[in-house]
Amino acid sequence: MKKQLFNLSRKCFFAGLFLALLGFQQSYAQQTITGSVSDDLGPVAGANILIKGTTSGTQTDFDGNFSIEASPEDVIVISYVGYATQSVTVGNQTTINVKLAEDASQLDEVVVIGYGTSKKKDVTGAVSRVSSESFENQPLTRVDEALQGRAAGVTVAKANGAPGAGIKVRIRGVNSITGSNDPLVVIDGVLGGDLSTLNPNDIASMDVLKDASATAIYGVRGSNGVILVSTKKGSGKGKISVDFFTSVSQVPDLLPTLADNVGDFARIENIRKLSIGQNPTFTDAEIAALDANGGTNYQDEILRTGFSKNLQISASGSEGKIRYFLSGNYRDEEGIVINTGYQQLSLRSNIDAQISDKFKVGLNIYGSRGEKYNNFEALGNGQGSLMYKANTWDPTTPVYDADGNYNRRSIKGIASLNLNPVLTLNETQASDVDERLSATLNASYQITDNFSYTMVAGTQINNYNVQRYAVEGADDTPDANFNTNKFTSYQISNIFTWQKLFNDTHDIKLTGVQEYQNSKNVFNSYNADNLLLPNGFYFAETASGFSIGNNFGERELSSFMLRAEYVLNDNLSVTATGRYDGTSVFRPGKKWGFFPSIAAGYSIINPSKSSGYFNSLKLRAGWGQVGNQGVDNYGTFANLGSNIYAYSGGSPSPGTFITSFANVDLTWETTSQTNVGIDLGFNEGRGSFSVDGYKKRTTDLLLNVPVSGTNGGGNVNKNIGEVENFGIDVALGYDIIQNENFNWNSNLALSHVKNEVTQLFDGLEQIDGQFQAPGGQARVVNIIQLGQPLGQLNGATFLGTWKSSEATAAEAFGKKPGDAKYLRDADGEIVFGAIGNGTPTLTWGFNNTLSFKNWDINIFLNGSHGFDIYNLMQAGITGGAGDSRSFMAADQINQWTPSNETDIPATVQLFNSSRYIEKGDFVRLSNLNIGYTFKDFAGLPNTSLKLYAGGQNLFLITDYSGYDPELSSRRTAQGNADVAPGINVGAYPNPRTYTLGLKVGF
């Protein structure tokens, strides 16, 4: 019996022990945990799911769902860029659903650095980010409005205020004298984009690579900096957004002229005629009638109130393993100059698919059609633009005669001798059509946990057609011309990336790229003169004179790149890059160039380990070289021009002449840059500060050198000359107020740059520019000087007027009291030289975003300082010369007289002199926008309605007397715009705009 009890007890003991061990084992057994990750808008795709302390992890799918093996004691860490990281202990849960909250300090943790991304704290180069959050409360039609003043080291200026006008972007000064200084624009990995045609509402972020250690990855394409544009992607629950706004635009102020005091104009015109020995133009009775009835202000006649509208619709989200972002934009802008305007329609489709855990593919398609109507650049402006002609036109001649027909010319034959500007604008039919289509296919495959391959294939097609019909010329007969420029390109990039973390200490990443690009350009044109049937463009075949032009160009670029990134202990970061480029534009033996860079950054205070007021402090330094292939496709060859000649009175026949000579030794222009920087974060990430100092030196400039007439004339491309840029970039951001109901964020971006030409060719200390002043004097108004910045303005030094006491001295130069007085040399000749510089040395932008409950306010100011404006518009209305000899300036009523010896000349003077140099410094309120958002509108969840109103260019603080100091104007074929900045010969005015709009999201 005892034995049986013992056996039973033993069985029970082992059974209990077995059950206990089984329970112990089960407590550590892994099980499948499923769950989802979402935010306020719906599911979050691509969130990282990691078991703490291990390398075991996964990602959420496009619906925000995940599945992972975990034990009850495991801690699951959920993270996603821009959101606060969350940790959840598994316990007895089998389903874990997490809602992420935004973390402002982490929103831009990852930045695009070209052919990949990097954590912001590991970036070693000078990179500035502009995210859509910084401009989403500003009604935008142009990308330059989003970029301007928001990235330190980046200068953005409008060419003019015309609808659809071009954008001028410069990064850390200018390098080239005759080549382009435009930065490289990369849109979703495809090189060679155009910011002016991009829909700003499609942009998720813009990362600007500024120093050579960052741009060297693009080699020959990165010499002027790189702007990496990332367009929006879809995720989560489907969303539709509609944004519509309408605008009213006006010129802020008219220029003061004697058109407002036309009687005084007539009196001063009589005095002018008497001073040159001619009879007075106006009788006393005519002057009395003008005093009583006034005249015609042609400036007012060609300006108007412009009305514009902009509609943006987008849909985004994810369905299963497909993500999508679709958008459409329609833009219709009336210009503030009569019969001018711009229309654009653009469509975008961004589709991404997760084919498998390792394979992803995406297709981006973008198409746009923009049409400028009566673009100033397409109109004849040999005597200044139409704004210039309107301000110098005879105010005593009405627009129409008694029969309702145009007064084609001045009745009195005075003031501007050009065609009536109202007639020119109303009767001109000029259409510039820009049609673009681009497609990008990107595919990536995760070969192993550490090794991946990405392919980017892109193509672009651009058709730019100009169709023009105008009445102009001395005989007032209509002309028609047409030209078409078809540009096609494609690119294939193969990107290999390997990354591995060793012992939680050494993080190594290698990126290798093989890339090929090809572009072709076909140009065709015809000109038809003196149409026999003046009924429009489509009667061009009735012209009595024809000429045609054709051109073709092709270039190829083949490249290899290797970048190595190393991070030690999450503190020390080192990046080294080498790119090898070969281009078709140079001859054998000169085609290939190698462009290296190296940069390092060290975190004295690491953001992941800090606990004090200063949460991050990093020092950066880098050096690198980039190239420039900025010559024409066949710039190393001799080129011919064509014309029609008539010999000895015979019939005209075509002929050719040399326009440029060959140079088989032509090669890369090289820019070397050194950069040092400091990044500081403080107050728990609420504040950030960065400062960079740099020096750029461009050698072997691709310079278009004139050839003397004794050697045949023309020009030749050579590698000669040097330019240097020194500068400082400063960026400061701070969340001034941050609480549940009220937030105020401010960001300041400031850039200072000093440019210097350090070497020219053949020992020269000065070469003339190509910008000629209107008026027929054939004097250039810009020069390039050794030891001085690019942008030197050329002219005589104005010393006021010859006074009565100086009559004898004036007579020695053929002058008399009341004439303009200029600085002269020892031989008595007027001295021409540098009288100013049109390149700004300091630019800044100050962006403020405030929100109070459902209200939001955006205030954006920007400024530019340290530059001059050559106000040749003012010279024209002061009676400079050429076709605009009459005095129109309002201050001419105080001109020199024997009893009132002022410094305002009473006779015609030099067009280009320091009298017309003005300081261009300005401060502008670029945007003020106020909005109110109704959440869960109409009782529908996740639906919003926002109403907003605001204004752009609301005030301008400047001493400049023209319309706007930021604008400049130039005629075609007058050289590089960067060696002739700040010159105004009648730029299209920059309007003041008032906007009202609504935005619906559901």
TrEMBL record:
SUPFAM superfamilies: Carboxypeptidase regulatory domain-like, Porins
GO terms for cellular component: cell outer membrane
Membrane topology classification: Multi-pass membrane protein
Domain TonB-dependent receptor-like beta-barrel: from-to ranges: 386-954
Domain annotation TonB-dependent receptor plug: ranges: 119-226
Signal peptide boundaries: 1-29
Keyword list, A-Z: Cell outer membrane, Membrane, Signal, TonB box, Transmembrane, Transmembrane beta strand, Transport
Keyword Manganese: no
Subcellular location: Cell outer membrane
Coiled-coil region: none
Keyword hit for DNA-binding: no
Family to which this protein belongs: Belongs to the TonB-dependent receptor family.
Protein name as catalogued: TonB-linked outer membrane protein, SusC/RagA family
